[in-house]
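Predict fold of DUF1622 domain-containing protein; 113 aa.
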Amino acid sequence: MAHIVSLAIEACAVLFIALGALGALYRIARTGMRSKSSDYQRRAVWLTFARWLVAGLTFQLAADIVNTSFSPTWEELGHLGAIAVIRTFLNYFLEREVEEKTELQEANRKRSA
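Predicted 3D structure, encoded as tokens:
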């Protein structure tokens, strides 16, 4: 049962990342076609995509936890620990980047207004 739940959660993670990537590609193409596209618009595309990535990484970590929650071996726990550390660092730095870019966006918007 845990394996089925894990697969469903992994499917959600893949869906989030795929939707984010497709949306980013669409918005990059749309923004790139405009001659007057601003840095603000390009950063907005990046921020949106980064949020989708953070959601996907979070769901992938959840799937790994569910997958090893029932009678794990020491090797599985070691793999989970390594994966958790790597994904936590990725998630942390992505979230930090999103926060910094969001603050920069807000500051630029206030100066423009």
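Residues 5 and 90 are 24 Å apart (CA to CA).
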